[in-house]
Design a protein that fits this description.
The complex is a heterodimer of chains A (about 325) and B (about 525). With about 325 residues, chain A is mainly α. Helices cover about 75% and strands about 0% of the residues of chain A. Chain A is built from 14 helices and no strands. The N terminus of chain B is likely disordered. The chains are: A mainly alpha (about 325), B alpha+beta (about 525).
């Protein structure tokens, strides 16, 4: 298989392996370990149905009598035992974490993509068109920056919950969460893209494109955009970690993923009720997973920022 | 010189000790929705307002009726009603005198169309002022338990209500009386910030001798059970209700904290939408529970002992009917539904309901572990082939949702204010009838002509044996028709700092005048 791909695209793979970025990657143990961990977590979330022992989202498969089983100990009533124990509903914590991480990652990635697209579009417009458009977009961004993003997300979530019909609330909850996190996150992207666009706009190749009569839209998308993407990539990675945490925070506060489809944050919220009574595993394992996931993505983002910024070398 | 100063200071502190402010901070899960005693008929509201407002009679520590704003009462003639002699010299917190006009006014207010307590007055035909301190309450039929049934009917000053444009309660939008109080009780509300804090101070002009030693009390709603528990352990609050059931064992080992346990008079049950076409639109099987087989399937699918074993940690008892065994009129004729998932599955198949979506509404801050219980029930129903969609919400949104008929199935807890089996029949078993003030909490619209016929007979029956026979008939009819699915009797778990003494009443009312702070 690998031979085949090398034959098909030898130059591209070579180019990648020879690149500065890859060289920096190989020289940084932090980057390698965090990539490995992040990949491992992401893959196990994506392939959760294969890796998990049960499907915690299928209410028909749960047995309440399995509730509160400690890790690796047989349950007093059913005799079943679970790697990481069970929660109050008899859900296997290990499987629930995998499925919960799926929701956390899906929300995080989609929200960042949404924020990225929105931020790039508005940033390009503001930077390229300038004038009133710039003023309006950037003042809106400034206003939004004065509110903590979690507050903005909660506000959006509240409004959306109010206007969605009750029978669709559960299905909509995830999408509303994405919208809420995405909308509270676009400002970072817009600011960076605007700044980079303004720099690029004055360069000769843009003037040349103008001279040969390329339409503005084409100049923005085909000429300027590729040149402002590397800082966007850095922000996207760091934003991913923040979005995962934002989702966990919202779910922890009870305004995120519904309890029948718990994300990592919902699991932590559920587990937190049982801390005093000694059922530590319901909180501990999801919290550890969230920590490791957010940390590895964040370290990767940090490294990427340093590697792509020649001035920091 | 220094020595003298020190000893003077020590002496002063000793002298000042009896006058030291005894502040009492208490936390509950549900903030009382309203300060209006006639607007919301729910325990958090009535329980709290029992400290501020008073009725003609009140319940003592053993739940027995004792005189409050009335000093004595006696039946009129051959059971036409009851004559109440009012207490003289009682004043409201604003200084106005209490008299018979206030009783007549409070009757009109509490029995009005706008009031949630209207069902209490179903047996009453009229309230007549005889003189300033005598009131006749006329009943439709002889009503031997009437004085027992009005302990929560609280008196409001007619002039105060008129002056503040609050002559009628407003349970949805609210009015002056929703945020302000003027009762005759032992405590006055000095600050009211909904969902934030409510401050009470003792009322100097109270007619009764104070048993408590509180100088200031502050109520803080803390929704998160773990947060409330940490606040109690750290001493930020002196009292929490409830203690999370999973933490009882650990808390009992803490020398600074006392756990007070009991059995509440409250039965937790499932209710069903049994009116054609009244359910949510777009939910598919909106009329699922019109079919008695569907209700029976639910009754057989829910494994109550498993819920009690795990979620309630063995701290509750299975219920067989709408009242607990401690209540008067409890029926021995019925026993709890047996858990039988195979029979439930067969019923679901037979009625053709496999895979039917059911909208299941549940509160998440009203009863002990309510959301966990609902989640467990959701799984159990899914296991017999139904497809319940759980929607858990705070109680502030929950009641409006139920009143708007937005459910197929819901969770309800009922604690009879009269401690009698007749009470839930009036509220939950009767066909809803606003004119007759019946069935006001019968959200699902359960209706049975025989029960409607039996209720007035139960209310007027003096012979205990005959009365019990009728109560037995109602209990078995409701069980056969699966009007509700009674689940369990809720445990009562309070936690206090060890320097506090108080009395726990099985209706889960927290009575401040029995609290002493050491």
């Amino acid at each position: 298989m690998s031979d085949l791909s090398e034959i098909e695209t030898p130059s591209r793979l070579r180019r990648m392996l020879d690149s500065d970025l890859f060289y920096a990657f190989r020289r940084s143990p932090v980057a390698m370990v965090s990539t490995l961990v992040a990949l491992l977590l992401i893959l196990s979330a994506v392939f959760a149905p294969l890796v998990a022992t049960t499907n915690p989202f299928d209410p028909a498969s749960l047995n309440l009598m399995n509730g509160f089983t400690p890790p690796m100990e047989p349950n007093a009533f059913t005799g079943e035992s679970f790697l990481l124990g069970t929660d109050d509903q008899g859900r296997d914590v290990y499987s629930t974490i995998l499925y919960g991480m799926r929701i956390s990652l899906f929300v995080g990635v989609t929200a960042v993509l949404f924020a990225m697209v929105l931020g790039i579009v508005l940033g390009l417009l503001a930077g390229y068109v300038g004038g009133w458009t710039d003023t309006i977009i950037m003042r809106a961004a400034d206003v939004q920056l004065t509110f903590p993003s979690i507050l903005v997300a909660m506000l959006i979530f509240g409004i959306a919950k109010g206007i969605t019909p009750i029978e669709y609330r559960d299905q909509m909850a995830i999408w509303v969460l994405i919208l809420a996190i995405g909308l509270s996150d676009w400002v970072q992207f817009a600011r960076v893209v605007r700044g980079a666009t303004m720099v690029e706009k004055g360069k000769d190749y843009v003037a040349a494109a103008h001279l040969i009569g390329r339409p503005s839209l084409s100049i923005m998308l085909r000429h300027i955009l590729p040149n402002v993407l590397s800082p966007v990539l850095v922000i996207a990675t760091i934003s991913l970690a923040l979005a995962i945490i934002a989702e966990a925070t919202l779910s922890f506060l009870g305004v995120g993923a519904p309890p029948t489809q718990p994300s990592l944050g919902t699991l932590i919220r559920i587990g937190q009720q049982f801390l005093f009574s000694g059922e530590w595993w319901i909180l501990f394992f999801p919290a550890c997973t969230l920590l490791v996931l957010a940390l590895s993505v964040n370290l990767l983002g940090d490294w990427l920022r340093d590697a792509l910024n020649p001035r920091l070398k | 010189m220094f020595k003298t100063l020190c000893s003077t200071a020590a002496l002063m502190s000793v002298l000042a000790a009896p006058a030291i402010a005894k502040e009492f901070k208490f936390a509950v899960t549900t903030d009382p929705q309203s300060m209006d005693p006639h607007a919301v008929n729910s325990a958090p509201v009535l329980g709290f307002l029992n400290n501020v407002y008073e009725g003609l009679v009140r319940r003592g520590k053993d739940m027995a009726i004792e005189p409050a704003l009335a000093v004595s009462w006696e039946p009129i003639g051959d059971g036409e009603g009851w004559r109440f002699k009012l207490r003289e010299g009682v004043t409201f917190h604003d200084g106005a005198a209490f008299n018979a006009d206030d009783v007549v006014f409070s009757y009109e207010r509490a029995s009005s169309e706008a009031s949630d307590t209207r069902s209490w007055f179903a047996p009453v035909s009229d309230v007549i002022k005889v003189d300033d301190y005598t009131v006749d309450i006329m009943t439709n039929a002889p009503n031997p338990i009437f004085p027992d049934s009005i302990a929560n009917w609280m008196m409001m000053d007619s002039d105060w209500a008129a002056a503040n444009d609050a002559a009628l309660p407003d349970k949805e939008a609210g009015n002056y009386a929703t945020l302000n109080t003027n009762g005759t009780g032992a405590f006055m509300v000095t600050t009211r910030e909904p969902d934030l804090r409510t401050v009470l101070e003792p009322f100097g002009g109270w007619w009764d001798e104070a048993e408590h030693n509180i100088t200031r009390a502050e109520l803080t709603p803390i929704q998160n059970a773990a947060t409330a528990l940490s606040a109690l352990i750290s001493g930020d609050v002196d009292f929490i209700n409830p203690v999370p059931i999973q933490d009882v064992a650990r808390l009992q080992q803490d020398p600074n904290v006392n756990v007070i346990q009991g059995i509440e008079a409250r039965v937790i049950m499932l209710g069903f939408d049994q009116q054609a076409g009244a359910a949510e639109s777009g939910q598919g099987g909106s009329d699922v529970f019109l079919d008695a087989r569907a209700r029976e399937a639910v009754a057989k699918a829910v494994n109550v002992p498993a819920i009690l074993q795990t979620i309630m940690r063995g701290n509750a008892e299975v219920a067989s009917q709408l009242v607990s065994p401690a209540m008067r009129g409890y029926s021995d004729a019925v026993s709890p539904y047996a858990y039988d998932p195979d029979a439930a599955r067969a019923l679901v198949e037979e009625a053709g309901l496999a895979g039917t979506k059911i909208s299941f509404k549940c509160p998440n801050n009203r009863y002990l572990n309510d959301e966990s219980v609902c989640q467990a029930i959701t799984s159990m129903l899914a296991q017999v082939g139904l497809d319940p969609v759980l929607d858990a919400m705070p109680v502030q949104n929950y009641w409006p949702e139920l009143r708007a008929d937005n459910f197929d199935m819901y969770l309800l807890g009922w604690s009879p204010g009269t401690l009698d089996a007749e009470h839930p029949i009036r509220f939950l078993g009767s066909t809803p009838n606003s004119e007759k003030k019946l069935g006001s909490w019968n959200f699902g619209g359960y209706s049975n002509a025989r029960i409607d016929e039996l209720l007035p007979m139960i209310q007027s029956e003096i012979d205990d044996g005959k009365r019990q026979m009728m109560l037995d008939e109602v209990a078995s009819t409701m069980q056969n028709e699966v009007a509700y699915v009674p689940l369990y009797v809720q445990p009562l778990v309070w936690g206090t700092r060890s320097n506090i003494s108080m009395t726990q009443r099985p209706d889960n009312f927290f009575i401040l005048r029995w609290v002493t702070v050491e």
